[in-house]
Amino acid sequence: MSGVIVSMRRTLLSCTSLVRNSLLGGALAALLPAEPADAADLVDTLSILLDFNRQELAVLATALALLGFSVMAAILLMRTRVRTAKNEAALLERIRELQLQTDRFGALLFAEPQILISWPAGDDRAQISGDISMVLPRDSSPQRVLAFGTWLPPDPALQMDHAVDGLRERGDGFQLTLTTANGRTLEAIGRAIGGQAIVRIRELSGLRRDLAETHLRYQALSDETEMLRGFAAAAPWPIWAKGENGALTFANPAYVRATEATSIADAQHRKLELLDSADRTAMERSLKDSAQFTSRLPIVIGGERRMYDVRSVNVGQGSVGVAIDASEADALSAALVRMAEAHRRTLDQLSSGVAVFDGQRRLAFYNDSYRRLWDLDRNFLDAHPDDSSVLDQLRAARKLQEQPDFRAWKAKLHEAYRAVEAAKDTWYLPDGRALSVVTTPNPEGGVTYLFDDVTESLELARRFDGMIRVQRETLDSLAEGVAVFGSNGKAQLFNPAFLRMWKLSNDAMREEPHIQTVEGWCHQLFDDPVVWRQIREAITSIENRVDVPIKLERKDGSVLDGMIRPLHDGATMLTFLDITDTENVERALRERNEALEAADQMKVDFVHHVSYELRSPLTTIIGFAHFLSDPSTGPLTPKQAEYLDYVTKSTNALLALTNNILDLATIDAGAMKLELGPVDVSKTIELAAEGIQDRLATDRIRLKVEIAPDVGSFIGDEKRVVQVLYNLLANAVGFSPQDSTVGISARRTERSVVFIVTDSGPGIPADMKDRVFNWFESRSQGSRHRGAGLGLSLVRSFVELHGGKVQVDSAVGKGTVVTCDFPTDQAAHRDAAE
Prior knowledge:
The chain is α+β, with helices and mostly antiparallel strands. The protein folds into 5 domains: 112-205, 2-Layer Sandwich (Beta-Lactamase), CATH 3.30.450.310; 236-331, Beta-Lactamase, CATH 3.30.450; 371-460, no CATH class; 478-664, 2-Layer Sandwich (Beta-Lactamase), CATH 3.30.450; 673-828, Heat Shock Protein 90 (2-Layer Sandwich), CATH 3.30.565. Helices cover 48% and strands 21% of the residues. The chain is built from 26 helices and 27 strands. A hairpin with a 2-residue loop joins strand 4 (185-193) and strand 5. The longest helix is centred in the first third of the chain and has 53 residues, at 57-109. It holds the Pfam family HATPase_c.
């Protein structure tokens, strides 16, 4: 304003300069103040001018015109300057306000420790501000904040990376609660604002943590509420809640169905109740007095009356309740009560004393036999005394056996309350009675005692044991084998003689084996199925139980005379008496008699055969020998060579026959001794085959030899083995047709070496099989070479001297197979023979 006034003043001064020389101009200049302060001074000045002389009016008018123009221009200029000044002042004021607001917001923003991370749109460079010491050391680079894995565990770091990527790429906001590696709890909030992605990280502490925890608790409570509502909706039992005034505030579908309502609102509107008025009154009274109510009540649902366990409790300002169907449990409980009563009535009829003590060791039940057994007062028992009191009273009445330490004995007896299995004991009472005591722990706790008077039983057992001991001693002293089998076929009794006879184990027989099992054990000595079937049928039969005598000739040569005798109790007794010696004497006498008769006949046959067989070779030998021995004969002619051949054959036959006769005589006299040594099987067969080469060539017979690769050698008399094989081959060649094949094979078994000689001759008739090994048993039919009948006899004798055996398998028209089995262990054979 002062500027405007100054401007007007300057205008007036310029006007007055025109009339400076006039009086008006001088007066005006004198009147105008040098520095007018305001418009009021200007008005006062103008008023003074009006008082000038009218003569100078014209001059003054002109001056005033100029003055008005100047005033108007000054006013316009003044307004423009005032407006500009006001705008400038307003702008400066706004700037100052914005600066203050910025400072205030900055102070508010960083009043607590936090980090701000912003990414401008289209720019991957992040601007980071705030206190990075929240997550990193103070000297760390702010950009390290973006490496979340340096200050967060792996899972939260990965979650933060995904959240930031979603914010920058799609503008997805997020809010995360993170726990750093050093245990600090942080809150990370991401938002897209003004084209920028901004992430704010701050520590949750104080009120914020409380709010977060409150939120979590609220969420958990909400989830729990939803879960409980879901459970209540799915539960088959009626569940309800009532307010303080008793009005229904919640009900599940089961409650709605039970009250035959259409919905919860319908049940609330119609005030439908599950219980009748009397039960509701009782429940309300109980809730008021003790804050809870539990009872088993009848409820009619769907026209059916069933029992329900109803439970209700006060919760907050109201109450909640549930009704669980207990009809089946109620029926089972009633049935259990009836069953218990039936058991009690049954136990009362037993002769055994029964006493049941509960988990508190108090008498819960006893029967009349228990009371009579101990002669106890009924009033005392009905008062449910504890176990110790009963025992103390029995001891005071001297009804229990004396114990050195009664307290320790009673404590040991009471261990049954902690046991898992029943225990049995025998009490010998002072009055001479013996009681069998069984203590059985009950599943629900407590113990059941069973008392039985076994005095008479023990006496009978003692007598029976005495009789059994006498019987056992009698049986054990018998030389006759005795075994008793029950009606079930199992062995009940046996003596040592029976075990020795059949080589049985005492422990195995004590297991009460069945007769079929015993039969299997005895097969090593006797395996006749007919006799064993007879024994089994006699033991297990019910009818036709009579004595059956049996006689057994076993594999070891022993003979047993037995008897199957049925007993009155359904059992069967087997008795065996070894009569081997008697049988051997009888057999020896019979065999000796037969041997004497055969010897007489043998002598006749021997003389006959010897006189016939020896006469012709000797005559030939003598005649041709004289003829050849005469020096005058000179060189041999072809005819002489033929004669010489006859002499040689006859001499060999005579020598072989003589040797065979001598060998048989030696064997028969028991003077033959084997010269044992290693016998090479291949060499032995080769030596035996050499003796029949001329006969093989003459009769055009092929010899087929088969020797197993592993046959090796065995211990025996090589000379006698060669003699055995030679006789077998000679016999086979003699009975084989021309252009046929004779075979010899050798193989090794576990305990022997087996030689097999086969031919394709006419075979041996069945009536001759048992006689082919007899002395001088010769068959010329079917053979091209008549023999003395001693070859096969020597074969059997030599093989048996080695401890082996000979077997002949033959059929008429199909050839003959002779098998000789030589044992490889001659030491075992000698021991057995001795």
